[in-house]
Amino acid sequence: MDQQPRGRGRGVPAQNVWTTRAETHSRSTNTGRQQSTNKQPIKDIPRSTRKFEEACAQIKASVDKHVAKLTEELSDSGSEEDETNNDNSIISTVLNLYGKSSSELGKIEQVLKDSLRSGTSVCLICIASVKKSDFIWSCTKCFCSLHLSCIQRWAKDSIYFQTEAASDQLAPGQFVDPRKFNWCCPKCRAEYPQTAIPSTYYCYCLKTQEPRFDPWLVPHSCGSKCEKLLQPECKHACLLLCHPGPCPPCPQTVSVTCFCAKSPVETRRCSSQTWSCGKKCSKLLPCKEHKCEVICHSGICPPCPKKSSQNCLCGSKKEERPCHSIEFQCDKVCRKMLDCGHHRCETICHAGKCATCPLALPRTCPCGKKAVTVACTVEVGGCGDTCCKLLECGIHECAERCHKGKCGTCWQMRVQSCRCGLKKKELPCYKEFQCETKCKHIKDCRRHPCNRKCCTGSCPPCDQVCNRPLGCKNHKCTSRCHQGPCYPCDRTVDITCSCGRTKITVPCGRERQTKPPKCSLPCTKPPDCHHESRTKHVCHAGSCPPCKQTCLKVSERCGHICKAPCHTSVLVQVAAPSQKRAGPWEPEQAPKMEIRKLPCPPCPVPVPVTCLGEHETADWPCHLSVPSSCGRPCGRELYCTNHTCTKPCHVVSMNPRNCQQCEEVCSKNRPEDCTHPCGRGKCHPGPCPTCTKLIKHSCHCGLNPQLVRCNELSDSSAPGSTPSREQLLSCKDRCPKLLACKHRCPLSCHSGDCAAQLDCVTTVHVSCPCKRIKKSMACNVRSKQPAISCDDICRRKQDQELKLKEEKERAKREEEERVNRIELEQFQRKFDKRRNKDRRRPDETSAPPSRPIQFYFLIVAVILVAIIMAFMWSRV
């Protein structure tokens, strides 16, 4: 984004013009010309707009780069294939086994050539080229090749959309089985079942799975024989190598005759084995009277076209009818007396003898439960049982006695669902329940809802007026509401040129895209500037071109004549585009422009001017001929005597206060260890004052902070100063640090290392391993003496304690054994008592057989052994 120079001289470039007079004069002249052409200063572009344009430019550059790369790859692949593959040799290899007939292989040869060229096969789904190494699927009807992934997605989407469309037409609660829908080829619309959705890449002959690309074979081919059954079916297989497109006609030779079998046998190609000799067929037709007069043909002969006089089945009527329709019925009822002698035949025109009287056959009562055989003159009455016929409701049965005629109305109450299935209500069975719910399904126009109460789902066609805007954008459609686009508007509009003397007629709506007709007459529009007339030009559309004549107005400020082009009526930009582009593919919107009267540009005549600081004199344009700053620093010494004036060139005065005040902080060197700024703050003449601020400094041990003067601390660093730095920073307390013996340092707050362990006099207590012998001594003494060991008394005491512990364990084991014996005796007594009780039951015949006493003693012994082992295990 362009930046305009600041300050006076807005049209002058932001550089130092105070160099040489020749450069200054040329620059000022160019500046005047530039200002004469720029009628209005350009507004700053918003940051968001600039970022959007940069993003669009990057996207467009990326797309161009991608397109160029694809073009280069295609050209490179084409050149490599031309160098490595010989198309004619590949085609001749594929067609080698067919024969030398080229007229029947024209189509398949063209398909092979297209498959060998790069970029000729395009997937109709993704609109991308089908490469020779891509996985493909070929339609069995139109033989177009598509990407395998594309056709899989196409088939699934087709089934999904059909299922959704069918679901919209169903009532609530009903479902659609998606398995009944088929998918179709995108090109020929040939339908395939869902089981035919491809999942694996095969060659053209469907023998090899995922064939590898071979530059010496047809792409996507396995290289073996096709061997597909030829069409029409002749029980012969294709002899070509695996190839795209349809198989050629069968090349085998057979001996056949014509359709009528009158001509001698000929040897012909299997694909054209059916032929006509051109003679009349002369076969006897089904009427058995005439012969076929059609030229030798295939299939059965057509019906006999001649007419003959024929009788109806009953023989009462005779008509002239086509010969091939031998039998026909008239409308007369037979009315012959039946065998019973009481009734007549009611059958319409029939051949042969009339049937038996239907009333003489076995008949049933009105309800159909009882069958009787009576004379045809006797009427069968009711059986007296309940009718039990199904009523009109289709749910309940008739509860009356067996009767003749129609059953009555069903009055039983039942819960009925409305037609739409949303609500239920208990009503008499014969009444139909309709709810008040309005149908929300969309009608066939796909715009308006049905709104019919209790709709069954079969919504009526929409009867509203379409009323959608037509393509002309001027009128609305008056047809019944419908799907798809409306018919185009049938009206016309006259378009005239700017002067209105030439016109053309176009369809309504085309007036926005149609340019006005060209007119060769001169333009008659008056000038909109201060000149008396325009430059002559022919009639045109839009506004006239801007006036190119010289302005020639006299400037009121300097009296010079304006030599710029006419600027009384100039088209200028007043607003930026209101909407942003969605991407680089959309055209840029034009900004809002208006015709305005602009003032004369600044006068560019050069005039000598001296700068304010009297540094130099240079030529400036007339409109800038006022003394101004040259931009150089002033350079005079300030009051602080340490800096010079850095203000741009300003008015020269003898008073130094005219220059800037020194606002810099004092930058003189501070004393050692002093981190405070100068007490006077700003820059000043002479030396800085002494720093007397208190400093909070930690002592040597780091526990107690010390307050000292900044100048005292900095002076204490000098050798021989009193007090020294060691004394100032000492808190006089005992040092908190620990020695190697884990005792506190005996010295006061100090710097450096603490005292050695030999200087530690802290009292410590020492004992033997059994804690009986105890002594007290100093820490430095303990480090020099050996450790205290146990004596004979200590050892005798330890032996007594060990014996006492063993005696307690022995007594505990004896007590546990006594308790186990008592429990065993109690168990034995309880077991003997139960055994005696069982012996006192002689009346029980199904008692279990007695066991010997040794068996029970064995069980008791096993239990005791287990208890003892568990006790011993717990002791271990």
TrEMBL record:
Transmembrane domains' residue ranges: 855-873
Residues annotated as domain NF-X1-type: 234-252, 287-306, 314-336, 340-359, 393-412, 445-464, 472-491, 529-549, 640-664, 674-693, 741-772
One annotated GO molecular function: RNA polymerase II transcription regulatory region sequence-specific DNA binding
Region (Disordered): 1-48
GO (cellular component) term, any one: nucleus
One Pfam assignment: zf-NF-X1
Entry keyword annotation includes Plastid: no
Keywords, comma-separated and alphabetical: Coiled coil, Membrane, Metal-binding, Repeat, Transmembrane, Transmembrane helix, Zinc, Zinc-finger
InterPro entries per the UniProt record, alphabetical: NFX1_fam, Znf_NFX1
Polar residues composition-biased segments: 16-40
Coiled coil: 790-825
PANTHER family named among the record's database cross-references: NF-X1-TYPE ZINC FINGER PROTEIN NFXL1 (PTHR12360:SF1), NUCLEAR TRANSCRIPTION FACTOR, X-BOX BINDING 1 NFX1 (PTHR12360)
Family: Belongs to the NFX1 family.
UniProt name for this protein: NF-X1-type zinc finger protein NFXL1
Record organism: Daphnia magna
